[in-house]
Amino acid sequence: MSLREVDETAHLVVNSSPDDIERRMAAGSIKVYKRRWYILIIFTLLNTTGNILWNTWPPIQETCQLVLGWNKTNVLIIGALQALGSIISIVPSAWLLDTKGLRFAVLCSISLQTFAVICELIPTHPEWRTVFITFAEFLISVAVPAVQNAGVLVLSATWFPPHERMTATAIATLASYLGSAFSYIVGPHLVPDVDYGNLTKYETGQSIDIDTLRNHTTPEQMKFLLSRINDYLFIEAVLVGVLLFTVLIYFPAKPPSPPSLSSAAGRLDFCSGAKTLLKNRSFWLLLLIFSVSNGVNWGWSSVQDLIFSGVGIDQKTAGWLGFSANVASLLGISFSWYADRIQSFTKPILIFLFVATAGAQTVLSLACEEIIPLSKPVFFASGISQVVLFCGTVPLIMELAAECTYPVAEGITSGVMVLSVYVINLIFFIAFMFPQASPRWMNWLLVSSTVVCIPLVAVYKAKYKRLDVDESKQRITNRSLSSSKRVRSSVLSRRSEKDNRTTAPRRESLVHEKEATIDDSSTVIIIRSLNRDLSPSARLERYLISLQRAGNFVICLSFGFAITMNQGKSFEERAALLRSDDRRYKSMGSVHQNKCKIYKRRWYILAVFSVVAALNNLIWNTWGPIQGTSQVVFGWDSTTITLLADWGPISFVVTVVPMCWLMDMKGLRVAVLAAVFCEFIGAGLRCIPLNGEHVTLQTWLIHCGQFITGIGGPIAMAAAPMVSAAWFPPDQRTTATAISSLACYSGTALSFILGPLMVPDVGDMKAAQNLTTNSGIDYLALRKLFNQSEIDHLRHKIMNLMYTELGITTITMLFVIFHFPEKPKLPPSVTAAMGRLEFKIGAKNLLKNGQFWLLVFIYGMGTGVYGGWCSILDLNLSQFHIDQKTAGWLGFGAVVAGSVSGISLSIFADHFTRYMKLIVIALLTGATVSLMIFTLICAGVIPYSKVVLFVTSILGGLFVNGTIPLFFELAVESTYPVAEGITSGFLTFSNNFLQVVFYIFPMLPKFGLRWINWCTFVTTALCIPLLALWRQKRYRSDVDAKDCYIPAPHNRELNGEVNYGGVSSTSTNGHPSFPSIQENTDGLTPSA
User: Fold this and answer.
1) pLDDT, tens digit, for every residue of 771-810?
2) How many CB atoms within 10 Å of residue 881?
3) pTM for the whole structure
4) Per the record, where are the segments of Polar residues compositional bias (predicted)?
5) Which of 143, 207, 932, 1086 has the most CB atoms at less than 10 Å from its CB?
6) What is the spatial distance between Cα 423 and Cα 86, in angstroms, rounded to a whole number?
C-alpha cells in the first residue's frame, strides 16, 4: 500500500484507540431504529412536494396560455430552466450533503421552495407574473436536487440496513413520481380546463387554437380562471410551510448508532471522491445508462401534455394518464423489494425492465402514429405500463452505482448521476423548442433511448463493494483491528522523531510504510484526517515526500523567500525574477499559520471598498438608462449617449498603468482614496447648476465628469484581488474577490433602477409612439413638442439624480478618510506575509507570459464586449419598441443575477480551486446558449416573446458576470508572485479596451445597432475553445497549502523592511516583524 493510502487509513486510527475502533466495528454496536420509517416518510413527502411544485404548470398549460398569455415556448422555457437550475445546483447540493449532513441540506431545500412559492403568489401584471413564476420555478429546481436524487442514497445508507436499502431508495425516489401524479390530477381539478368540446379530437387529431378561444372568453371568465390558479398556488404554499415546520421540529441527520458497518465507516472527502469517480469506468457506463434513459424520459414526461395535445388529446385526459401512470409507478417498489432479497440478480432484473419498457413505449408511439387504433384502453395501458416499468429501473441503477463506487460518499455518486440526467434533459428541451421537433419525433426518441440501454446493461459488470463489507463483518473486524494497530504504531513512531530531516528519515518513513501495508479488503473505514493531531515535523515530512514524488521542489532563496514550484519556469528563472536591487522583500522567515490572524473588520473593509467600486459604475452608467429623456433635455443624439458611456473605458485605458503603479507602491488606502476622490470630483462637475441657455457648457462639464470618474476605474475594478489577498484567508479569497469585483456590476444594476425611477421616461408619451421609426423613437423630433417649462421640469429631475449620486459619493469618501487601513497588523495567510515582485519586474514578467495574455484576451472578449452591450441596452432594445423603464429593469435583472451567481459560485470555488477553470467553461457555455436565443429572437428567426427575451437576457448576465471573479482568481493564481494589483490591472485593461472598440462602431452612422447582438454572441462563444486551451496554474494556493517551515536567515541587508499586500512596514528591532510558522494545533483561527 502506498504512503497516501496509509495516511487515508490512518485517518481513522490516529485519534482513536483500538478499543474505540473495536467498539465502532463490533456487531453489537449496529442498531436499526424504528424511527427510520418516520424519517423516510418525511423525506418522501419532501420529494412528493418538490415534484408537485416542479410539475405545477404542464398539467394546466392550456389554461395558463389562455389566462396569462403564454404559448408553447413559455412552458418549454420553464422546463428548460428547471433542468438548468438543477444542473447548476446539483454539485453544490452533493457537497452540502457531504459536508453539512442530511438535515442541513433538507432545511436549505425546503426553505428555498417556500420562498419560491411565495414569489409565485405575488399579484402583478400578467407579463411580470410570468417572470416571477419563471424565476420561482428556477429556484425550485435549484432546491429540489438536495431532497430528491442527490439525498436519496444518503438517506438509505444512513438509516437503513443492507437488506432494506434498495427498498428505501425506491420509496424515496418514486415519491417524486407520486408528486407528479398529484400535480396531474389536482391541477386540472382545481383549475378548470377550458371547454374544448367532446372527445371527437381523438378522431380528428386537431390541436387547440388558444388565440381563437381567447377571443370568445369574457373578462369575468378570465378573472375566475386566474383566481383558481391562485387558489392552487396557495394550497402549495400551505403544504410547503407545514413541511418546513415539521423539519424544523425533528429531522435528525443520522441515527445515534449506524445501521450497518458500511454506514459506520467513513467516506472519502468530496474532492477525493470526485477524482475516484472520474477513474471508475464501471461507474461511467452506469452513468451513461442512467443519463440516456432518465434524461429523455423525464423531459418527455414534463411536456407530455404538449405532445398529446398535438395528436388531439385534451388536458384532462392527459392529466388522468399522468396521474394513473405516476401512482402506478409505486409498483416499481416491488422490483426493488425483490432485488433486496436476491441482490446478485439485480442486473438481470434491470435488463428485463428495460426490455418491457421499450415494448410499452413502442405500442404508445405506434398508437400516436395511428398505425394501431388510438383507443382509450390502448392509450392508458401502454402509458401506465411504460412508466411503471421504467420507474423500476431508477432505484436499481442508483444502488448499483453506490455499490460499485464505495467508499465514495453516496451523495457525490447520486449527485453526479443526476447532473448528467439534467444535462440530457436540458438538451431535450432545447431540441423541443425548434418547430421541426414534432411530438411524434419525440415519442420515437423516447423508444430509442430505452432500447440503447439494453446492450449497455448487458455489458456492465456488477460490483457489490459495499455489500461485501456488510456481509463479511467478522473477517473485516479482525483484519481492520490488527491493521489499524500496526498503522497507529507507525504513525505514533513518526511523531517521536526529531526535526533533523536528512536522508535517514526518508528511509525510516519507507520502513514505516512497509510495516503499515495491509490488505485492501481490510481497509474499509476511511475517516477524514484531523491534520492538527500530526506534529509539525510529521506533517512536514509527509508534505516533502509528496512534493518529491510529484516532481515539485521547495526552494529557499538566500534572502529567505520561499516559492513552491509546480510546473512552468525553472527554479533559476523564477528566482531571478525575485532578485531586485531597488526593492527589498520581506523574508518568509518563520511565517507560520499560528501567527497569522483574521480580523472581523475585514468585512468592513470589503463593504467600504465594494461601495466605492459600485459608485464608479453607478456614475459611469448614469446616462444609458435615461438616454431618451437626456436627449430631449440636452438636445443630444445617440452618438453622444454612446460617447458618454465610452469615456469610462477610454480613461481606464489611459490611466491603467499609473493606477496599477499607485496600488503597488503606495498601498491600498492611498489607491482607494484616489479612486473615491475622482468619483467625488466627477460627480461634482455634473452637479454645477446651469440654466437652459448654457446646454453646451453643461454638456462639456458632464463629459469631463465622466472622464474623471473613469480615472478611478482601474482601482475600482482591479483592486479586488488586492483586498482579498491583504485581508482574507485562503479559503475566503475567491468569495471576497467575487463580492468586491461584482460590486461594480451592482452599481450598474442600481443605475438601471435609480435613473428610471427618478427621471420620467418621455418614451411613454403618446406623441413618442407617433414618432417611432424602425430604429426607435426620434427624440430630436420629440424635443420640438416640449415647451421650455416642461424641459426645465425634466432637467430638474435629472439634476436631482446627479445630487443623489454626489451625496452618496461624499458619504463614502468620508468613511474612507476616517477609517480604511491599508493592511491588518498581522497577515491572514502565508502568502499575504510574503513579498511581491517589484512593479517593473512584475510587468515584464507578465509581458513574457503567453498563457497570461491568452487569459487576458479571453476575459476582455467575454466580459468586455458583454459590458459594452449591456451599457447601451436601452438603445439596443429601443429598436424593438421596448421602453426606457422596461429596459432598465431588464438590465437590472441581468446584472443582479450575475452578481448573485458570481458570489455563490465563488463560495463554491473557494473549496474547489482546482476546478475553477471547468466552472468558468460551464458558465460561458450557458451564456452562449442564452445570448444565441436572445439574438435569434431579435433577428426574427425565433418568434418574438417579451418573456423569453427577458429570461435569456437575465440568464446571459447570470452566466457572464458570474465568471468575472473566477477570472480574477485564475489570473492572480497563475502569475504569483506578481502583485495582485498589477495582474488585475492588465486583466481589466483588456475589458475596457475592447469596450472602447465596441463603442466606436455604434457611433458610425452606417453600422446601426442590429449587429451588436451577433457580436456579443460570437465573442462569448469563441471564449470557450480558447479557455479550454489555457493551462491552469495554482502557484499562490500551493504556497498556502504546503505551509512549509523555513528558518529565517539573519540577513543584515534587509533592514527590517517588509512588504505584503502591496505596502511596506518596518520592525523596531532591526529584523523583519513577520509571524513565525508553528503548527496551529487547535485548528482554530483567531479573530479580532
Assistant:
1) 555 555 667 777 777 788 888 888 888 888 888 888 889 8
2) 12
3) 0.40
4) 1062-1088
5) 143
6) 9
